[in-house]
Amino acid sequence: MKPKISIICLGVSDLERSRLFYEALGLKTHDFDPAQNVVFFEMEGTWLELFSRSELAKDAGVTDIGDTTSGFRGVTMAHNEPTKEGVGRVMAEALAAGAKLIKQPEDVFWGGYSGYFADPNGHLWEVAYNPYTDLT
Amino acid sequence: MKPKISIICLGVSDLERSRLFYEALGLKTHDFDPAQNVVFFEMEGTWLELFSRSELAKDAGVTDIGDTTSGFRGVTMAHNEPTKEGVGRVMAEALAAGAKLIKQPEDVFWGGYSGYFADPNGHLWEVAYNPYTDLT
Description:
2,3-Dihydroxybiphenyl 1,2-Dioxygenase, domain 1, globular, 32% strand, homodimer, 2 domains, alpha/beta
C-alpha cells in the first residue's frame, strides 16, 4: 500500500450547512453539483469529503449508532500553521464561520501551541504550531 | 486557512498493536521512539498519527465517551488505487495484517469499485478505485 490517504470523509447531517462552513474557511470545492449529496474539497495532500452520515454508514455497510453531533469519535484532524499567530488567526476564522470553540490555543506539553474547534457536526480540528516538524 | 490537513490522528487503545498493523501495511514511521506514546507515519500529503485515545480526548479537553472499538464514528479514510486489482490487493494486505473485513470490494453506485476494512481500533478505511478522479 502506497503511503497515502486519498480522502478523509466526514459524515454530516446537513450537507449545505457543512459546505458553507468549509467554504467560509476558504476551501474550494471540486466539481460541485448541488444535485449530488456529496461535496469534495480539493486540498494539498488528502482531500476532504462531506457526505450524509447515514449514507456513509450505508456505504460501508455498518450501523449508524446515531452519535450525530456530540461525543468523542477517537479521530481528529490537524491543520498546522507556521506561527502561533497563525494558529490564533485560523481559530478566529473558524469561530467566525460558525465553529464551536473546544479549546483555546495554548502552549502544550509536547512543546507546541494548539487549540481545537468543532465543525458543525462535531468533527474535531486541532490548529497547531509545531516548532519541530513542518507540516504546514 | 491554507487548504491542507496536516495530520489525521487516530485514537488507539494499544499503540504497539496499531503501529505493527500499519507497519505491516508498509507505512514508515517518522522519528519513532518507543518511549513516546505517539507514532507518526510519514505519508504523501497528510500524515497519519496514532495516539492513545484517552490522551487524545484529554488533549482536546473533551470527554471520552468510551466507544473504543465499535460503533460508527461518522469518519472514514479512503485509500485509492489505480485499478480494481489494486483494491483487491490492498484489501488482502490489510486482512493479512489483522484488519477486520467490513465490506468486500464491489462495484458501487457512483461508478467506482470499493471495499472497507476496520483497523485494530475500529477505524474505517475504504479502499477504492475511482475511474473519474485520480487521487492515487
